[in-house]
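Quick one: co-fold with zinc ion.
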Amino acid sequence: MSGRYSDHDVEHYDRPRRRTRPRTKERPTYDDAEDALVVTVDRGRFTLLLDGRTVLAMKARPLGRKGVVVGDLVRVVGDTSGDDGSLARIVEVTPRRTVLRRTADDDDPVERVIVANADQLVVVTALADPEPQPRLIDRALVAAYDAGLQPLLCLTKSDLADPETLLATYRSLGVPWLVTRKGGDLDELRGRLAGRTSVLLGSSGVGKSTLVNALVPDAGRDVGRVNAVTGRGRHTSTSAYLLQLPGDVDGPGGGWIVDTPGIRSFGLAHVQPEHLIEAFPDLDEMTEDCPRGCTHGDDEPECGLDEAVREGQADPLRVQSFRRLLEARSESAY
Ligand code: ZN
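Sure, here it is.
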């Protein structure tokens, strides 16, 4: 191979220098690499969106064990035609703005990144049929706050039940919310999704698929290959895929959603209490004088949150709700 031959060459002429500084194999530079967006991942194959076309790719060796996930902005080389049978290579992952993680389950400390670069986590919950599961909502909120994503409660089937009971639980946390109902318009939801990347999360039967289909009516045509890969309802290793919302990103509409068909709940073993409270700056400020290692939970003897409540500086309901989230972190999902 010519590479090996030139290595010998270099070794010969550079021998004296080799002792002080080990010769490193020259890495190729990827000046000709193109930017692409990861749409979905399936068994080591990555579906990318590149210049409006769908391209299949694999990880190139220089990436090593570095993960590539849905929402990642990557640089690719090789056959980026997107033609049948073509396979491009991902050579670089652009630093991520945000990462949404999950631990496989609470006893398993292995944490995985599910989605990169999202802005918002939309927790889709039916108000009835099936009944809302506040513990699952709490856990989704913890994952969102930990990841630095804005949460949004999307309450479906408002024609079947009044949202007030459920909202009372979340109002003191200041979680944004909206309701939808069968046959109702989705203008408010579209407005909240416009111009950003939102992860949609919801258990089966809550109407998430209906929302996704209504938001992206031509999803099947635009990303036919993606659907062929993920096959909605079919069991695959794929747990998320990215869809572009219709509309101009700079004008009304636009934005991206990440559907998560395979994800019903979050393992949260990776979430640290000191990180969670940072999502609530007002409460965080009140914990400045907490004893070292205080988790700010109910059973902490000298937590600043209790003092703040006693002195009327903190809303007791807000503190209580924050502590409920803290507990949701360590509870089992089911
Ligand atoms: Zn504390």
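If it helps, Residues 215 and 245 are 7 Å apart (CA to CA).
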